[in-house]
Fold:
Amino acid sequence: MFECMDLSVLSTDTLEQRLLALEAARSELAGREMVVLGELDRRQVAVGDGARCLSEWVAARCDVSLDTARSLVRT
Structure:
């Protein structure tokens, strides 16, 4: 979808369209992530793995900071 190339040769309109497409893709993935996190929470996988909470589990599994994990879980 987004091949590597010199962005300086692209028009402003093309860059804007790429930005909008990237944001749409990011939003779609974030929505899917929320559904998966909800199911993992329902299944109580964090407790089963010995974590104190889902945020702690997500931080360890996804290699993100605890603050980032908390934000994902809170959303």
Q: What stands out?
A: The helical segments are 12-42, 45-48, 54-62, 66-74. The two ends are 28 Å apart (CA to CA). The first helix runs from residue 12 to 42.
